[in-house]
Structure formats: C-alpha cells, structure tokens
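## tool: complex_structure
## caller: assistant
## args:
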Amino acid sequence: MPTFRSRLKSLGFVALNAWLVFHVFAIFIAPAGMPPASPLLVDASRLARPYNDALFLYHGYHYFAPDPGASTLVSWRVDRPGALPVRGRFPDRAIWPRLRYHRYFMLADNLGGFPDQMQANVFTAYARYFAALHGSSTISLDLLRHHPSSIIRMQAGGQLSDEETFETEPLGEWDFTPPQDAPAAFDGLLAPPADETSADEPSAGQPSAGQPATAWRSAESPSEHSSPVALQPVAVEQ
Amino acid sequence: MTQDTPAGINSASRLRTAYQAWHNFWFRPADTLTLGIMRLLTGGMLVYNLLVWSLDLQAFFGSNGLQPAEVIKKFHGTGRGYSFLFYVTDEWLATVHWTCVAIAVMFCLGIGTRVTAILAWAITISYSQRVPVANFGLDQILGLLCMYLAIGPSGDSLSVDAWLRHRRVPLLPRPPKASAQMTLRLIQIHVCVIYFWAGFAKLKGDSWWTGEAMWQVLANQEYQTMDLTWMASVPWLPYLIAHITVAWEVFFCVLIWVPALRPLMLLMGTLMHVGIGAFMGMWTFGLIMTFAYFSFSAPEKWRRWMHRSPGRATALENSLRDVTTLTPASAAGTSATAASAAVMSAAPASHPVTPQPVSPDRACEVVAPLPTPARASVLIVSVDAEERHSLRRYLRDHDIPCRATMSAELALTLILQERPAIILLSGTRLTGTQIQQMVGDLLDGTDSPIIAMTTERQQSRLTAMKANVTFLKYPVSLREIRQALTDAVFGAVVAAPNTEYSQTTATKSLAVESLPAATSASNDSDHPTRTES
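## result:
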C-alpha cells in the first residue's frame, strides 16, 4: 500500500517530467512564431508565450539574420544661443569599454524592431536626454544608416566609410522649453512624455519641425558624421 | 490482456527501455563540478555586465534617461516584462544597483548559492527588461544560464558554500546529483535550440546563400575591431566561412550528440565565438556562448586539470588497472602495492604492529613481486575514480590496508582472493536500482560487513538489505568513514567473544589491531579511541 508520501513523490516526479516536456517545447517554439511564420506555428508559439514571457525566454536567436544589412546610428545637434552648436552620435568608437559601446550601438540599431509608437517615444527620450546633457532646450536628431560595402565595391577601390554608404533620415527637432504656465514639476528642460500631450499641436516634448521622414534621403552633409565625435559635449566650429 | 501476447510483451519491453533511456538521459546522477565552473564564469560575466551598467546608470535607468520607465512599461504591456527597476526611484538607483552587484559577486563566488542564484537570475531579467532596446545576445544567454544555474545545484562545487562545508568536516567529493544532470541537459538542449534557429533564420536571407553575409558582418564598420577588408581580394574566404557557419549552426543540434564529433563541433563553435570577439568586439557574447559549452564537457577532465596531477592520475589509472586485472597468479604477490605490502608484511595478527608510513604517491606505484600474498582489510568499491583515489589515499595515510575497485564483479574476485574484513561501498554515480543490485551481488559473495555510503533516496532502496549493511549518509566526512570502519570491526569482534579466531576473524583482527595502531601513530586527535578505552 503506497503511503501518502510516496504517492506525493510519484506525483512530483510525473509533474517534473511533464514540465521538462513543456519547457523543451516552449523554448523550441518561441523562435518559430516569429515572422515569417505559418498560422500553425504562430498559434503554437502563443501556447508557450506566457511561460516564455515570464522566464525571459521569448527570443528569436536571429543573429545577423535573415541578412546582416545596414547598421543604424543616431546623431544629434544641439544649438545653444550664443554658443557653438554641439554635435554627437552614438555609437561612438571612443566609448569604452566595448560592452558599453555595444549598449549604445543597440540603442540605435535595435530600435527598428520595436513598434512605431515606441520608437517615437524613445526618440523623444533620446532628444530630451542629450538636450539636458548639453544644457539646451532644443535639439535635432538624425537617423544614420550605414550600408555595408559590397566586395565588388571594395575591389574597385571603395572604402567602408565612403559618403555614399551613409543614408540620413532626419527624425525632427525637439523644443523642451517649458510653457509659461507649465507646472513646477516640469522644471528646467524636461517636458512631459510625448504621448501625454496633444498630437495635433506642437508642444514641448514633440518634434516641432521636420516630422519623421517617410523615405530615405541621401545625407545632407555626411562628412559631418564621418569622423567620430565623443559622447561628451564637444564644441564644433561652424 | 495484450501483455500476455508476444507483441504485448514486446511493446511493454520497448516502453520500459524507452522509459529507462529517458530516465538515464535526464536523471542519471552527474558531477556538480560542471555547474560549479559554469556558475563561476557566468557569475563573473554578470558582475562585469553590472559594473559596465554602473558607468551609465542614470542614463539608461534614470527617470530622465534614454529608456523612460513609462515608455518601456507600455511596450511590455500588462503581465509581461517585469523588472524591479521600474519601481526604483532615481535617489535609490545607485544603492539598489550596488546591492545587485554585491549579490552577483556572492553568486559568482558561491555564497548562499541557493538564494543568490535565484536573485542573480531576477537581477539579470530585471536589468534586461528595463532597457530592452539596449539588449543583445549577451542578455539573452546570460538570462537563460542564470535561470538554469538557479534551478540546478550550482553551488555544490567550487563555491564558498562547499568550502565552508569542507572546513567543518573534510568531505569527500560531493555525490553526483540527478538535478545536476537535468540542469546540464536543459542547457545542452537550449544551446541546440539557439543554434538551430540561428541557422534556420539565416536560411531565410539571400546573403547567406550568396555568401555575402559573412563579408557584410566582417566589413561592418560599427562592429569591426580590425580591418578585414583585405578579404575582398580573396572573396572565396568569406563565402566559405558563411556556408560553414550556416551548415554548422543548422546541424549542431544533431552532430553534437555524436560522441566522435562532439569535440569537433565544440572546437568549431569556440573558434566562431572567439572570432566574433576578436574581429567584432563582442567578447561578452562570444564568451557567454562558450561558457554554455561546458555543459557538454566531461567533468573528470576538469577535476584532473584542477588537481594538476596528470602524472598522478596516470599512475592511479595504472594502479587501478593493475588491481582490476588481478589474476590468481598475480594475487599471489605479483601486483600488490607498496602500501599493502608495508602493512601486510605485518607480524602475526595477534600482535600489534607499527606499520611504516607510506606516501600516497608510493601507494600508486607498482612494485616488485612480494614474497607473501598481499591482503587488504578494506575493499573500496566506487565507480568514481576521484572518490576511489581520495578514500584509498586517506586509508593508506592511516595505514589501513585497502584495495579499490570500480565494479561488483571485480569486487567479488578480490573478495575471493583477499577476504577483506570490510567492504566500503560508495553510491556515487549509481542509481537506486544499480546500488541495490550491487549490494545484492556483494552480499551473495561475502559475509563481511558492508558499509554503504548513500544518499537518502538510495538508502530507501536498500531497506530490505539492512542485515549486514551499515549506512553512511552523504555528505560524509573521511573521519566518519574511519569511525564507521572501526565500529564495524569491533562490532564483529564483540559479537563473537571467547572464541578462537577463524581465518576470517583473523583477517578482521588484523584490521582491529591495525586501526588503533595506525590512528595512535597519527596526529589526528579526533580519531576513534574505543580500543584505548
């Protein structure tokens, strides 16, 4: 006659085996549901979605796939009344250690994989942060795409940093000057998040000009970005 | 009903075989050393990761930083992407962060590992989910490794926890654990899944088929740490590397399970990840992937390397081979060890002897033929080479003649030849069924007392065999083992008082006399003192 304890142990062992089966299924199916995927795979991955979300296992493991493609950078320009403008971009090769460089690189390179609304909010955060860093209330951001050079182009004498390999998309200009009747909480340069204000009229925290471009444009002055600029404030002569 | 038919019996047998295979795959006890190594490496990476975060704490995690908490929370939605950092205000950020660093250091060193491993996992997830835009492969692999190390007994080896336990009582190597095996299997399978999907995702892109992809990666100015544009003059090289990379990733999940190909697969993977580190500057990602490879490695090799005694290991193997291939002729004196020779050249059993101390190294040497048959008072049966070595060295250091063997069959041969007074059986690396069978075999072949070192679970399988078996529960110290040996010998003598010693009792008597003599000669003040009393 099995005792309660031994019965409990048997049940625990069965549960452990069931968990193992489910866990292996969950980690296998998580990347399968990422697009492009059949409805069957998407539905199957949904079964394990809460589990994978809870355990931070919802990754696709698509390293440099399906194609490595271009890398993305973000550049900014801070105009300060009565002072030289400050330019910068990230990632910057001067950032050290390398892991820190990669964190900044991912801030620019990963953003394409997130929803549009989140991208807009994050760009506003970038603008606010760098404007505050340089003691200014206005800032403009550009997205730079650095396309890889082909082997044929390199064989013909091209360079990885040639101007035509860069593509610039202006993201807009932000003005964080607080309105006269702004509550005291928004002191200094900081403005409420973009999604908390009306989208119809430009206000603090919103791009006031140069709405995000819908098509890639060639770089207006790529040479400005061809040389690395330190992350810390750097005065650039006009 | 179908059980009675041949087909039914066949299916039942197949089912049983399948279950046994499944059980062995997941739950066959494994050495915890591998998890200890992985904890050290992964913990070190976590500490480094956190230290790098401390350079930009407010920039990434502050309320006015690059990743505002409200935006990230909205992205995660309800019920997803939890992080305790969402609830940390700017004023407390540094305090919380340095507390996390301290916990990560404790996890790395194996201090309170059961708790700190879970906390380290929570820290890893929290940092990653607080700044999802800044994540890359390192965070994914760090997260899953911390999870598995929190599940498994990662603090059982190479940890302060283990060292403290060892300080209290000199422990034998920790017994292998089924949970260690399960954890290692989970890591192995996860690595296979990662490469499988990494390979298949590449097949979706044209550039991996045309071979251009590897060039694009190596010639990416934002990634590269050294100029590799010279490869444009030898284009076949990046093409070849691209094709090999895809093939290796896609087939890794199959070929890694072929024992003959495993070293090659791991070598290729290591080269690839070292290349990622060297040429693309992603050392952290490259290294964390190779840390996961340790789950595929054999812990015996690391143990041998750690003890830095390849010579001794070889001598040990020779010694074992010598014992395990013992023939009746050799038992007559051709293959006895120096240790047993020193002790067994003792005078008549009724007279105490003062054996010559024998060093462990000498104990492993095969010496010239001895004039008299060498007999061991204690026969050690353990499938774990390291444990055999520890026990034999310890007993010989205390001048207790012993032999060691790895299986019940060889033990029975030695029992017939040497009639040992006591059999010391270790449950290390044995399942409950295996130790049950082994004890059964030994009981059939000898009436000598058996001391079985077992886990609680193993012991529960041996309840019906308690007659001539004494149990020592893991973890057990060497001193406790010596005490148990003395008790077993004295128990046997006291049980048969006022009688002339038979041949078997004489052998036991030798052990009785030898033990106190040896222990009194040692400096160990904690030794058994029953004979003296």
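## assistant note: Chain A touches chain B through 64 residues (CB under 8 Å). The longest strand of chain A covers residues 166-175. Handing back to user.
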